[in-house]
Structures
1.
Amino acid sequence: MGDAHGDVNRRPLGRTGIEVSEVGYGAWGIGGAQWIGARDDESVRALERAIDLGLNFIDTALAYGPHHSERLVGQVVRGRSETVHVATKIPPKNLRWPAQPGVGVEEVFPAEHVRRCTERSLRNLGLDALDLQQLHVWRDEWIGTGDWLEEIAALKDEGKIRWFGVSVNDHQPETVLRAVREGVVDTVQVIYNVFDQSPEDELLPACAEHGVGVIARVPFDEGGLTGRIGPDTTFPDDDFRNLYFAGDRRRQVAERAQAIADDLGAGLEDLPEIALRYVLSHPAVSTTIPGMRSLRNVERNLAFADGRGLPAEQVQKLKAHRWVRNFYPG
């Protein structure tokens, strides 16, 4: 699978030549604005501890906070002697997540916006170069249109970005297949977990075939695969999980989490390990980036980054727990 660093296993990030810890750091949660209760001092401690344990890949975005996550990440990374690879993202100029069909790329990622955001991220982070710059939304119909790709090439030539990828619209892995097959991207970032197994159908095999790195996000289904969400779970008023787990979704999640535990002869307390190891059992995955806002989460998640994945028979059993759903019930 890769080379160990301490006890943390590393894998190639596609054809980039970079080796990344198979558990990376998803830094949305430390932006503060969209996640209630994120505290900078705790976030910094969690990041520092993760790097102490061998983590060397952090994924952030200009929109997280906004700017705040990048600044915190930069503060930590600049203070370390180890090499820590930082990935960030350019927000859509029209501020529409996900990308809408039929909207031209010139409205979403014109060249001047690509450059301005990249240079702003470099200032926020205090770094000379980004290891990975990503578009925060994506549609394959943009290939061959607009001036964004020439700007990415120019930023690479200038040494401001090393590699380029896209963050795939939530639960739409099919929308990036052309970019992978035509060599437009070095990496893709996609939602992949026990419930949303759809990337296995076409995207992960295509990435393996074409040497494209895979950053798997939302490995715990926003908490649905931790065994800690039940019918009576509440979230703060402004927390986006109120929408994600709206209607009867909390009860459904609790029942499905229990069914996974029962099927594998495990307890609910074992679900985080099962969920993370399932994602890491796919050979096309380079790294997975759970959000980690506490020392406890950092230590737990990195303990599973040992290159072992799950036994094949458990992976097979989990195929039956794929859950195709309307993700934002009205």
2.
Amino acid sequence: MVLSGLISQETYGSKPLIHMRDLQLSYGSGVKQRIILEGLDLDVQAGEFVCVLGPSGCGKSSLLKLIAGYETATAGDARVNGEELRGPSTEIGVVFQQATLFPWLTVEKNVSFSLKMKGVPRTLRKQIARERLAQVGLIEVAGLLPHQLSGGMKQRAAIARTLAAEPKLMLMDEPFGALDSITRQSLQEQLSHLWRQTNKTIFFITHDVDEALYLGSRIIVMNGKPGRIMLDVNNPLNGKSSNAENHRELRGYNELRHRLLQSLKIS
């Protein structure tokens, strides 16, 4: 494909793409201060697929918003690609639980919107949009409006739009959480394939241990109030099966799943 050079992730060597040290995030002050994250250390290398597990209220989504530049750390050091976080960046793409597509634009125009804002010529942005739609299996619905799509299709369109912007880092906040189990499994398999195809760095929030075990090359468990990292492990089962259902039959799956569940119970 003509744009294969754009798809490849830049190589950063040993320098982490995400770097956080002694991070704190809090709201309010004095007696009304509420500490959301405290003493958090995290490094993420380019090309990793990091799944973050944790119960509601432990600060998972707050951490993602901080990395996205939507929140500002109260204390500590927070950097992406060596740069201090000072707000949203075009190098960071975000996919939320609900696909935030423009209802008045076609699927193709939604995907190419950020390219239009960057001044990319019409012919090239159309080409990029169609490549990304082909990657997520939506080329046949390129001319439809969002309301004509199923929930799973909308999420695939949102992923295609994020990929079209060529971010160095993709943040995903429970993107499949609202979908039925069959659609969810299908999208998990597509996302796993996309990650291997594009070598993007993905930071993925989920409540689902099985989803984390299938998708993540590395799994982080957060817990407590304020939120902290309780467990950080490389996933030896990553890539061992192309099918999410068969993945659960792998040797060692139940042991690792039990370890993750135990960490989720620690507060």
3.
Amino acid sequence: MSTPDVATRTRVISFSKAVNEALAEEMRRDERVLILGEDVAEAGTPFKVLAGLVEEFGTDRVIDTPISEPGFTGIGVGAAMTGLRPVVDLMFGDFLTLIMDQLVNQAAKIHYMSGGKLTVPLTVRTTLGATRRSAAQHSQSLHAWVSHVPGLKVALPSTPADAKGLMKTAIRDDNPVVIFEDKLSFQEKGPVPEDDELLIPFGVADVKREGRDVTLIATSSMVQVALAAAETLAADGIEAEVIDPRTTSPLDDAALIESAKRTGRCIVIDEGHRRYGVGAEMAAVVADGAFWWLDGPVRRLSAMDVPVPFSPVLEDLTVPTAPDVVAEAVALIRP
């Protein structure tokens, strides 16, 4: 059988469409998959990502819930334990504060506390990211919290293709998974394979751009920031390699370390807070594994350690930008 032309196997679609496709395909493939959350049926969520699913699958599988995140997450945990594969739609990642018992003390622990007899194939789909003018209670990036918990897997897609492939992998995984989507990424477009078996394995980083002078490790929408910075740096004769871990738990330590060994320099860019964050963990991984190959200290660019302001001019100052990355890279290479 001949291999089809690439143009016939991919098309350019939005991030939100890619997530929608992943959910629809998995619900068609497996009748145990269902979605529950606030406004998932009637409104297609505030970001309209789930639009059309209730028309195809009905309200028995796309279920609007009361405004009680602990309640419907607990239902999701119980449904997963008894044979279903629920996707819990948590409107904003900030609301992790409301479901930490269900997620951390229940979902993440049950397999171990039952001696391996029980599994919790639960997917929690939620958001992160600032600069949407949503103020301090709807703008946080709290992925470090769940990345810290043994028993949970955590994914952060940065492109439409990754969004689709990671979501499908999450739904099929027998462990609880939290998948974070940056709110500003939903309208971003990119090539996505038509193959409905597009699965991206957890724990495998992706090289978004090859380079020889400095490694830029970036998560979620910060990948686009890193790529923009790499373009600017290239015009100045500096070739940056951009690595997207794609999952923080499990983390592809080897890929990060090997890239830093090749380039001799490394900057980690993450929208979580700097203190005790994902950026700090990745910097430590690189420092431990590539120490003798590094020509300078591993740098971190993260969100400021302040509540996210509502003021647009202040909010924009709190997160890393492409010019920030360029300045850090130039300072590291040409001190």
